[in-house]
Description:
By secondary structure, the chain is of the alpha/beta class. It is built from 14 helices and 27 strands.
Amino acid sequence: MQxxxxxxxxxxxxxxxxxxxxxxxxxCFSGMAPLEPVEGGxxxxxxxxxxxxxxxxxxxxxxxxxxxxxxxxxSPANRAWMPLGPYLRHKGEIIVLPPTPEGPRYKKPQxxxxxxxxxxxxxxxxxxxxxxxxxxxxxxxxDDDAIAAVAALAGRQSLRFLGSHPTxxxxxxxxxxxxxxxxxxxxxxxAASSYGGRFYAGITLLIxxxxxSLPCGEIYDxxxxxxxxxxxxxxxxxxxxxxxxxxxxxxxMFKLNRFHWHFxxxxxxxxxxxxxxxxxxxxxxxxxxxFLPALFAGSPVQGGxxxxxxxxxxxxxxxxxxxxxxxxxxxxxxxxxxxxVFPDTRDPDDTGAETSVQGYQANVLNPAMPRTWEVLEAIVxxxxxxxxxxxxxxxxxxxxxxxxxxxxxxxxxxxxxxLETTEDLQGWTIAKLAKYTARxxxxxxxxxxxxxxxxxxxxNNAILFSWTGQGPGLDAARAGYDVVMTPAQHVYFDMAHSNxxxxxxxxxxxxxxxxxxxxxxxxxxxxLANRIIGVQGAFWxxxxxxxxxxxxxxxxxxxxxxMMAWQVEKPEAENLVALSQRFSVNENGRLL
Length: 592
């Protein structure tokens, strides 16, 4: 079977050349958004971007074109928009078709080396060089848990760290995660007041040693923000635990300290729940013969789950790296899978036809249904008990317009509580869920939309994540919320690096080059500095079907978000590009 696809005049031209006669075959695939056939086949079924097209009889060796187009005004921007995980279903047989080669094909920015820059990212707050350089084989450190964690990380990265150069650690009253480092020919001195400070001093030494001889002098360093995050969507694509461990290692190398684990969405719920075993089992795999079809899958069947033992192992690994893990459960929208497993979370008399931006219908839980609260509270109970960070992200983004308008039960609930709009009911719903979460001892968090509604939104001391831009985050900060800035135009690393049609990635927010990750100010209004608590990068996985595709999308752009999260002074784009030449990763996420 021969198969290829190309983009032409905003259409996808797919050519099938079978090696045997095909009669009654169905062409199955996903896309970046909902698709429909223009020629060469008839739409059989669709769920969001997952599409099945019935084909006519095709003779052996006879090329047959299927022409597809994106609906709702979407246009393919690059190779990532071509059919994902294509296969044929033919008389009970599954014929896997060649996938579009994944991964970015961007050109690395060219920059002249800047010799007086320390070879570390992010750069320290203060660096006073003495002008000397020394060669060492590593550091002789007394028993210290933070330094031991750095040594273990160095071993996983195949880097030198422990050796014979005398190194001492003293306590100094410094801020959380801050450290002072004196590098001298006779001795290295580390001063800090916390595990994080000692750990980051060790990371700085590890990265400097990686670059060659050590520059002598004094470093004082402390982060600008307490929240320095990286998000990963493991709902659309199941990443192996070893990949998540490697991501945690990479985050630690750049002094990031919050891993936002997005394991629940329309397509899956990846964490094993003892209290809802049927739920996890039904959603472990997607594809042929499964509960849900091959949504965003790279093969006819794809998936996986994380056992609670695996979750605990990853949390422990993160803790050794001074990283806290934030779990996200997603409510009330982005709940297609949950609503299908538990149909009594929806009003059976709901006549609404609201559709999500991903093309899903009926992907929102109904707060007027008692079963909704039974399921959500069971999830909150178990997830809060499993994750020790004491924070829980509740979701609350991309609610389709006019949701619940066709539900008699929802309208009655709105009348009971004096609510007039969809946003009002969403605000009431997420506030109720946040209150329950807080009673469990977890601080709630949510996306920016959780601030909406006549009641003032989620409340309950929640942290809000501003993603469509900075504006909603600034508004939330003025309303008294703590805010993490994660604007899609700068730190959504699933966006393509460039507008080259041969590149890879989404484009709805922007094309994001390395320089774009620092072309903004996280705190444009100084009066809100005490409310903007951090910066976070994000990676969504709708079109990532192999773990190795993560790394060239994250890097080098994660360097920019790390700098924005740590450095008090905004990094110069030229300096960032120069430093990026010194950091790259292999297919396993290890530094080269």
